[in-house]
Every structure is written in structure tokens, then in C-alpha cells.
């Protein structure tokens, strides 16, 4: 971003000699570029020799801003390294500084430059969607809002969305089944019997009555729960006067549940109805931002965000980087409360207004309930950092103990390997990476096993050999670790060691295998050229290695299950000419399996939406040809 760095910080003498040499070259390149620049707003990109984007910045005056990078003694080390790698620049002029900020935020989000302060692992937030169907469906939605309907959110996490959907089903009995499932029901499903749906699919409720329930659900989600409660009370009294005591009891139960939910969810903070609250905290060279999301007077959840590439960046610069990158894809509320105000806050609010056509205020409250909310977020951010810091210290200590146990001079990163399959099917191998800072999820990899032979029944050694060959084919792209930890015994270790020799790679290999009874705590460690060893059962190092081994196992099992689920839709239907993925999916949902489709008559097949007689005959004769 663009706040001025402290010129007294990070002396040039701290940099390696080769960086100092390149620094002068980079500064001269920037000076040449400056000669061609106008005194206009715009965005600049620093590029490496391979044309990789190193840094993206905005400026009110391009000439004045870019020339500052040639004054290397005033830059922090992060930007000195950036200048030393700069070989060329790309410049885009804009009409205003606001347009420059919008372009900068989008480019940073897209390109993730090496030297920008970055919002790490940003994600799309889930919403609750009520579809535009005659009998609207309630479901979780993530991603572009392409489907017609009414969206509510964003929620901080999936758990908050799922709890809300369950609440809507219990309160208003709105259906959550797919449209295809809905259209092909002939009798109520389980949701009706447990009173979470009114079975509109089979006419247990009229269109008008169902729409009233949907409107009540929308009112609740829009924060009008008091009005919804009054409506339910009126309906309860009307049902009671009509002697429909069963219906009256249902309304009574809904009112009780709604009251409980109101008591739990309502925050009752004066002046805070729609707001995002963010607090940034720093500890041990790390920064996190804690976010609270309030909509319609209710807490929609919390989330913690980590900032990276923060060397030499002020807290205000980090907050500006966070807000500008976070709101590239997330529509803001009218009020944003922070514990720090960015230097370019006016430009930031103008850019958000231009992007979303709503007036935004970014405030740092100094007293009152708003201040209390921000302080609460800051406290959570600090506690999160302290937990990470303590965990990191544990990792550091156990890495040191591991070095001593294995007699290896230095271990900063470990790759852990595991395989998963079901009698040879849906076979996958995975690697995870653990460093002294914790698990490095950006370095996780999964490999679908390709070299499957007809007699393959789950040959773990062959799988490990294939995975290691494919991993080492990327040795120039993916940094090699200091240790390979293999979930397996001597045979797997020997197979991996042989592959390393073939690729002329020298990395220590250790296998970890559970005891005969497959019980954790009795692990044996295997090596290519020495006898196996064990650690004491109460050893902290043993527990640490179990944890990282189990993380690889978790990732392998999850990858296998996901792959197996995808394979379930592959069936004999793939061979039916003219049947695409959409029709195949509808047939499988309706009949349960390819075998069920094969047993169906032409008339049965025609009951599936989108299957006419011609297509039904084609499917029928495909399964019944001699």
C-alpha cells in the first residue's frame, strides 16, 4: 500500500551483498521509468526479470510516488528487496485516485504480489438463499449471486448458516430439498414427519399459506422478528377461536422458539444494526484482524484473518490493506468500526461508495458501546495471536528435539505423506507440510493414483513410489523440505529412498508406523540405513509426530472420500448416447442407482423431468439390448 515508511528503520547494511548490488540496479531502472511518468493518479506494478509481479501500488501523483522507491535508504527491508528484484514496471493511469485504489485492490487480490501486505487465505462468505420458486427453497449459497432469489448475509462461517437454516425449518417449515426432488415426490418425506417442512410437494399446504410462511421467514432474516412474533400470535388466537387447537399449538411452539432465539441472538447495542467490526493486533512479528459481523441487530458470526508480508508496514497500512482487499468481493454495511483508521480513509470510503453505490462510514470510536465492541474484537485478536504464538513456540521446541533425535543439523520444514483407497479404488496419495510456524496449508498437495493395473488391490508401496516420483518432478517449482515423514514401515521407506536416489535428491527419510495392534503410542520409526527406533510412550516428541502424521491421515481420508463421491456419479449411464450429466444426475436421484434405471419401464422413465418418450426408449433399449 502507500503510507510512507519510517526512514530510520531497517538499515541497508542488514541486507546480503548480492541484494545490495541489485538494489542499485533496480533503483536506476525506477529512475528511468520515472522520466516517462505523468503527474497523474494511477497504478504501478514492479516486475521481476521473469515478468512476475512483485508489487502493486496506487498513487495520486505517479511521478512523485514512484521516485520515492529510488531513495533506497528510506525504504524498509521488504521494499529494498522488492527494488533489488525489479527489472521493469507497468503503469496504468486513472482519472481519479479513487479509481486507482479500486484497480489496485483488484490487482492485489488477483495477483497476490510477493511484497504487498496481503490478506492471507481470504474466502467467499456463505449466504442464506430463499429461491424464486413458487414454493421457495432455503439453502446455503457461496459464490456469485447468479441464482434468482433473496440473499441474506454474509455469515462468518458455514456453521452459522446451517444453524440459521435449521432455525427457519423449525420456525417456518420452509423446504430445503432440491427442485428435482421436490417435483418427483409422491408422499411426504421425513422432514414433514419431524415438523421441519409442510410438504408442499404433495399438497399438504396451499401456495398462499406456504408463501405466508416464506414471508415470515424473510421478515425474521431481515430483523423484523418482533413483527413476525405478533403475526404468529394473531394466527394462534385465530386458530384457537376456530377450535383448531392443533394448529394453535404449532403457532405457540413457534412463538416460544422465536423468543428463545431472540434472547440468544439480539445484541441490543444502540446504533449498531448493520456493522462490520475489525480490530488488528500484532505479536511476535505476526498480525491478525478479528472480524465481527452484525446484520439486522444479530451476530452473524466472527472470523480471524491473518496478514502476511507485513515487514516494515505500519498498523495503519496493514488495516488499509485489509479493508481494501476484503471488500473487493464482500459488500460492506453502511458502518465499519475499526481500532485503527487507515491513512487514506477518505479515498477508501469513496472507492467503496463508487463500487457498491452505498454511503460508507469507517469509524474508530473512542467511547461508548461501539468502542466496547471494537475493544472486544481487539481482545479476541490478541488472544488468537497468543494462542498461535504459544503453538509456534511448541513447534519450535519440538523441531529442535526432533533434530537431536534424528541427528540432523537443521529441520525447518517437514513433508508428511499418506495414501488412502478402498480396496484399490479411488486411490489417492497426499502430502502435507509442517514448519516451525505450524501447518503450511498452501503447500498441501494431492495426487490421484494413475498407475493402476487390473490386479491392483491397494499396493501402498507402489502408490508411495508413484507419489514420490510425481512430487519430485516438481522439485524445481516446489521447495524441498528438510525431512520426509512417511506413514508406513520399512518397505515404504526403502521405496521412497530408492526414488530419491533416482532423482539425485538428498533429503532424510523417516517412516512412522503404529504397533501390531494399530494403537497410537506404540509407533516405530524406520530409516533407510539404520535400525528402527522407538520413543518413550510419554514423549512430547512422539505426541507431536503423531499430530502431524494424523493431519496427513485426515487430509488423505478427506481427499479419498471426495474422489469416491465424484466417482459415484460415474456409472453405466455414461454409455447411453445423448444422456448428459444433468439428465444422468436426475435419473440417479430419481431411481437411486444405475441398476434402478435399468429396471425401470419406459413409462417410469418418462416420469423424470426432461425425459420424453424418445429419450426414455433410448435408455430402456440400451439396458435391455441382447
Describe this structure in words.
Helix 4 (97-111) packs across helix 12 (345-356), helix 8 packs antiparallel against helix 9 and helix 9 (225-241) packs antiparallel against helix 10 (245-265). With 626 residues, this protein is α+β, with helices and mostly antiparallel strands. The longest helix has 39 residues, at 368-406. The chain is built from 20 helices and 19 strands. The protein has helices at 17-34, 62-67, 77-85, 97-111, 158-172, 179-183, 190-193, 207-221, 225-241, 245-265, 315-326, 345-356, 368-406, 460-472, 490-502, 540-568, 581-591, 594-599, 602-606, 613-624; strands spanning 42-47, 53-59, 88-93, 118-120, 127-131, 138-141, 149-152, 275-283, 286-295, 298-308, 335-338, 361-363, 413-422, 425-435, 438-439, 445-448, 483-487, 509-513, 524-526. Strand 9 and strand 10 (298-308) form a beta hairpin. The model is unreliable at 1-13 and 264-268 (pLDDT under 50).
C-alpha Rg, in Å? 30 Å
Shape: globular
Helix content: 40-55%
Average per-residue pLDDT, rounded, comes to 83
Could you list the spans in which at least 5 consecutive residues all have pLDDT below 50? 1-13, 264-268
Beta-strand percentage?
15-25%
How many DSSP-defined strands?
19
First-residue to last-residue Cα separation: 71 Å
Oligomer: single chain
What is the structure about, briefly put?
The chain has 626 residues and is an alpha+beta fold.
SSE layout and pairing:
Layout (H helix, E strand, L loop, with lengths): L16 H18 L7 E6 L5 E7 L2 H6 L9 H9 L2 E6 L3 H15 L6 E3 L6 E5 L6 E4 L7 E4 L5 H15 L6 H5 L6 H4 L13 H15 L3 H17 L3 H21 L9 E9 L2 E10 L2 E11 L6 H12 L8 E4 L6 H12 L4 E3 L4 H39 L6 E10 L2 E11 L2 E2 L5 E4 L11 H13 L10 E5 L2 H13 L6 E5 L10 E3 L13 H29 L12 H11 L2 H6 L2 H5 L6 H12 L2
Parallel strand pairs: 8-11, 11-12, 13-17, 17-18
Antiparallel strand pairs: 1-2, 1-3, 4-10, 5-6, 5-7, 8-9, 9-10, 13-14, 14-15, 14-16, 18-19
Amino acid at each position: 500500500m502507500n503510507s510512507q515508511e519510517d526512514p530510520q528503520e531497517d538499515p541497508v547494511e542488514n541486507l546480503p551483498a548480492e541484494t545490495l548490488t541489485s538494489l542499485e540496479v533496480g533503483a536506476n531502472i525506477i529512475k528511468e521509468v520515472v522520466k516517462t511518468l505523468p503527474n497523474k493518479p494511477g497504478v504501478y506494478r514492479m516486475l521481476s526479470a521473469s515478468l512476475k509481479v512483485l508489487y502493486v501500488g496506487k498513487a495520486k501523483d505517479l511521478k512523485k510516488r514512484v521516485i520515492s522507491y529510488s531513495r533506497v535508504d528510506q525504504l524498509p527491508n521488504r521494499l529494498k528487496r522488492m527494488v533489488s528484484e525489479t527489472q521493469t514496471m507497468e503503469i496504468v493511469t486513472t482519472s481519479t485516485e479513487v479509481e486507482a485504489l479500486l484497480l489496485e485492490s483488484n490487482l492485489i487480490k488477483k495477483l497476490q504480489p510477493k511484497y504487498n501486505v496481503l490478506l492471507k487465505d481470504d474466502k467467499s462468505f456463505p449466504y442464506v438463499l430463499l429461491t424464486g420458486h413458487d414454493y421457495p427453497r432455503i439453502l446455503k449459497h457461496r459464490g456469485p449471486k447468479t441464482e434468482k432469489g433473496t440473499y441474506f448475509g454474509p455469515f462468518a462461517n458455514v456453521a452459522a448458516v446451517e444453524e440459521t437454516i435449521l432455525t427457519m425449518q423449525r420456525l417456518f417449515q420452509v423446504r430445503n430439498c432440491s427442485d428435482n426432488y421436490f417435483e418427483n415426490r409422491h408422499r411426504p418425506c421425513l422432514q414433514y414427519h419431524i415438523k421441519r417442512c409442510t410438504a408442499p410437494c404433495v399438497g399438504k399446504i396451499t401456495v398462499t399459506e406456504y408463501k405466508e410462511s416464506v414471508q415470515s421467514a424473510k421478515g425474521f432474516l431481515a430483523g423484523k422478528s418482533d413483527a413476525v412474533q405478533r403475526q404468529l400470535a394473531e394466527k394462534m388466537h385465530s386458530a384457537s377461536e376456530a377450535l383448531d387447537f392443533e394448529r394453535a399449538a404449532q403457532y405457540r411452539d413457534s412463538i416460544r422458539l422465536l423468543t428463545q432465539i431472540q434472547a440468544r441472538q439480539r445484541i441490543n447495542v444502540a446504533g449498531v444494526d448493520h456493522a462490520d467490526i475489525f480490530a488488528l493486533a500484532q505479536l511476535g512479528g505476526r498480525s491478525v484482524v478479528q472480524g465481527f459481523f452484525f446484520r439486522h441487530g444479530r451476530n452473524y458470526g466472527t472470523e480471524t484473518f491473518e496478514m502476511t508480508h507485513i515487514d516494515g508496514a505500519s498498523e495503519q497500512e496493514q488495516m488499509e490493506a485489509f479493508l481494501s482487499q476484503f471488500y473487493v468481493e464482500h459488500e460492506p454495511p453502511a458502518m465499519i468500526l475499526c481500532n485503527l483508521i487507515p491513512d487514506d480513509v477518505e479515498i477508501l470510503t469513496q472507492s467503496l461508495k463508487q463500487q457498491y453505490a452505498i454511503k460508507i462510514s469507517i469509524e474508530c470510536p473512542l467511547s461508548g458501546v461501539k468502542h466496547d465492541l471494537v475493544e472486544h474484537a481487539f481482545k479476541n485478536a490478541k488472544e488468537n495471536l497468543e494462542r498461535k504464538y504459544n503453538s509456534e513456540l511448541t513447534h519450535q521446541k519440538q523441531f529442535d528435539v526432533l533434530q537431536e533425535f534424528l541427528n540432523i543439523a537443521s529441520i525447518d520444514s517437514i513433508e508428511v505423506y499418506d495414501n488412502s483407497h478402498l480396496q484399490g479404488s479411488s486411490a489417492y496419495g497426499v502430502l502435507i507440510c509442517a514448519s516451525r510456524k505450524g501447518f503450511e496449508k498452501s503447500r498441501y498437495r494431492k495426487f490421484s493414483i494413475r498407475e493402476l493395473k487390473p490386479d491392483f488391490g491397494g499396493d501402498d508401496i507402489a502408490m508411495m513410489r508413484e507419489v514420490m516420483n510425481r512430487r519430485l518432478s516438481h522439485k524445481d517449482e516446489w521447495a524441498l523440505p528438510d525431512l520426509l515423514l512417511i506413514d508406513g514401515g520399512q518397505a515404504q521407506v526403502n521405496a521412497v529412498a530408492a526414488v530419491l536416489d533416482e532423482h539425485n535428491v538428498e533429503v532424510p527419510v523417516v517412516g512412522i508406523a503404529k504397533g501390531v495392534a494399530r494403537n497410537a503410542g506404540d509407533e516405530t520409526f524406520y530409516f533407510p540405513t539404520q535400525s528402527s527406533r522407538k520413543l518413550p510412550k510419554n514423549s512430547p516428541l512422539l505426541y507431536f509426530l503423531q499430530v502431524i502424521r494424523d493431519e496427513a491421515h485426515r487430509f488423505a481420508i478427506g481427499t479419498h472420500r471426495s474422489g469416491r463421491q465424484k466417482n459415484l456419479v460415474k456409472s453405466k449411464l455414461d454409455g447411453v448416447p445423448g444422456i448428459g450429466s444433468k439428465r444422468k444426475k436426475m435419473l440417479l436421484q430419481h431411481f437411486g442407482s444405475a441398476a434402478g434405471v435399468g429396471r425401470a419401464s419406459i413409462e417410469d422413465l418418462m416420469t423424470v423431468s426432461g425425459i420424453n418418450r424418445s429419450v426414455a426408449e433410448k435408455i430402456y433399449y440400451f439396458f435391455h439390448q441382447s
